[in-house]
Amino acid sequence: MNKTRVGHRLRLRHLLAAILLTAPSAALADSDNYVEIGRGKALATAGDCVACHTAPNGTPFAGGLALQTPFGAIMTPNITPDNATGIGSWSADDFARALHEGRRPNGTRLYPALPYPYYTRVTRADADAIFAYLRSLEPVSNSVNRSTLPFPFNIRASMAVWNALFFTPGEFKPDPAKSDEYNRGAYLVEGLGHCGACHTPLNALGANKNDRHFEGGVVDHWTAPNITNDSQAGLGKWSVDEVVQYLKTGQARGVLASGPMKDVVENSTSRMADADLKAMAVYLKERGAAGSPAPTPVAASDSRMKVGEAIFVDTCAACHVRSGEGIPRVFPKLAGATIATQDDPASLIHVVITGGQAAATATHPTAPTMPSFGFRLSDEQIAAVVTYVRNSWGNAAAPVTADAVKAIRAKVTGAAD
């Protein structure tokens, strides 16, 4: 054999050995599985795992985020491969059991804050790929208090009853009567994407109201809007391409992703393959039928509308424009916007009180920001301007009361007035 070629091979072996000797132990274990790790990373992105398992200003996937639920705050766990505080001691079977059955390796039941009622539909091959990716991360030592719920919700054994009532385990089964694209979209939306966890209202026990699937929910005092194909409250007026554009860029039809959806777009959908986004859009556009007809708008002569109009002209029109059309890619459109016409006005009230920021993506790197007006507008004034926005330029929705604003203000700022 040519001595030069042998020399090259020896140097290559020495280089690889040096790389492996300096690699983290978890990455070393999977160093021969780069394709699987890459696939797992894409799947973890589709599942938006990083959003829940990362504390503010914390290390990605190291846990510690307080998820607010109707029953109290649940701290998300560390899912880096740290042996003591993460999932370093877990096997692939342990990980699959958590996703598919909602159980820890020791059999302890998990709360559905981990959306295992959705993740149960994920195939075992995809679960293994996600686990391979998580095992490739740098281990982070971060102990998280996992017992933050008050009594009696801290009794995990009660989840046996909850699961019996509301949880049906089982992998996704494609519909043979539908296209491959539709079924791919269904798998992503109903499984990894767990879209219904936010966009479906919950019953008193924290389970989805399945008879109102995708008709809108509440997340951390924001409204997760209706995403059925209903033309009044949902996506009925959106094309498939517009849904894809929104998921990819955070902007479409004058709507800018904000609130919890900002994080979903930034961390997940903007990083997904276009084909997967189109499949999700195709699936969503076939979900739901015509909903309730639009209500009669509050008359322009109503005193609340007159007060609201004056506040809008003084405070809002400079950005959103007097006609409610906004400024493309900078300030969102309010005329015909779902945030304005949802049955639950929580998002509109929330953003007026606290302000907000739109998603920043590779294609739209500027993240427009709305300032807070809660410091200078009273509950009555916010109720008036929100009522005006919900019933102008062709919009029609129930008026908002000062008491409703006061309740949301107390939740989002910790102050009653």
From TrEMBL:
GO terms for cellular component: plasma membrane. It comes from the Bacteria. Heme c 1 binds at residues 49, 52-53. Its cofactor is heme c. PROSITE patterns: CYTC (PS51007). Residues 35-138, 180-288, 303-393 form the Cytochrome c domain. It is found in: Cell membrane. Coiled coil: none annotated. This is Gluconate 2-dehydrogenase cytochrome c subunit. It comes from Bradyrhizobium oligotrophicum S58.
